[in-house]
TrEMBL record:
One of its GO terms (cellular component) is endoplasmic reticulum. The keyword Cytoplasm does not apply. The keyword Membrane applies. Keywords: Endoplasmic reticulum, Membrane, Mitochondrion. Its main location: endoplasmic reticulum. Gene3D superfamilies: alpha/beta hydrolase. This is DUF676 domain-containing protein. It is found in: Endoplasmic reticulum; Membrane; Mitochondrion.
Length: 278
């Protein structure tokens, strides 16, 4: 019985499959490991061009364009499968967390109800190494891209949002904080939207050559549950074993969110497996 949509959003230089796949694994862990633990969720991955530096052409789309694509793609899938009122949980790595926050702001202000429902139905977000507080990450992003072997062309539209003092980052943070505050207010109004549960994971180990990509201070949101992962920024989303302690920490938080929703909602639909939308 599927009662929630769980969608994975990759980060900088990431990929809708490779970000969530260990080096020697046959499949991404949302497909190979998670379904036996979380049996009441439809698992989706969202892909977008997150290469900021590349040998060939790189997308010139900014974060807002990718956020709009996420909202449009997810709304289309929900409409097609008649699951427009299904609760949503996001799991986001790195830049994907900022994209998710911007997407929820965009969805909230949309004229189409099916787009607004994405904001209204969101019940939880797991941020994994997301740079919430905008220390000067653009140089780190360039180093990270070069570390991964990508160079020459640069998408400044993506890098700009990571700069300290970025107007775009400030807008995203301000809008998201206001939305959380409104959602988390105690209200007896039955139409009041449910709170959004937030969990933030931070990296405990540096990346070779690059160092720490997202500091603990930047990866944590005020009043959120903060959990360390004993790995670097890239490996914090790559697992091939259920016994991996880092996987267990993330899976446990996702499972807890799904269980809380299960206590509130019992709609009966068929369980489906991993799908990808880019």
């Amino acid at each position: 019985m599927t009662i929630v949509i769980l969608i994975f959003v990759h980060g900088l230089t990431g990929d809708y499959e490779q970000t969530w796949k260990a080096e020697n694994a046959a499949d991404p862990w949302p497909k190979s490991l998670l379904p036996s633990i979380i049996t009441n969720a439809r698992l989706l991955t969202f892909g977008y061009d997150a290469n900021v530096i590349g040998k060939g052409q790189v997308s010139e789309n900014g974060l807002r364009e990718h956020a709009m694509a996420l909202v449009n793609d997810l709304a289309r899938v929900r409409n097609k499968t008649k699951t427009n009122e299904r609760p949503i949980i996001f799991a986001c790595h790195s830049l994907g967390g900022l994209l998710c926050k911007d997407a929820l702001g965009y969805a909230r202000d949309c004229l189409e109800e099916r787009h607004r429902q994405i904001n209204c139905c969101t019940r939880g977000i797991v941020f994994i190494g997301t740079p919430h507080h905008g220390s000067d990450l653009a140089p780190v992003a360039r180093k990270l891209a070069r570390y991964l072997g990508r160079f020459k062309q640069t998408n400044s539209a993506i890098l700009d949002v990571l700069e300290k003092g970025s107007d775009t980052l400030s807008r995203i943070q301000r809008d998201f904080a206001n939305m959380l505050r409104s959602r988390n207010e105690v209200s007896k109004d039955p139409s009041h939207l449910s709170p959004i549960e937030i969990v933030c994971f931070f990296e405990e180990l540096p990346l070779d050559i690059v160092g720490t990509v997202v500091s603990k201070d930047s990866a944590i949101m005020p009043s959120s549950n903060a959990i360390g992962l004993h790995c670097n920024h890239i490996d914090m989303t790559k697992f091939d074993d259920k016994e991996d302690e880092n996987f267990d920490r993330i899976a446990a938080e996702l499972q807890e969110m799904c269980n809380k929703i299960a206590g509130d909602k019992t709609d009966k639909t068929d369980r489906t497996s991993l799908a990808s939308h880019s």
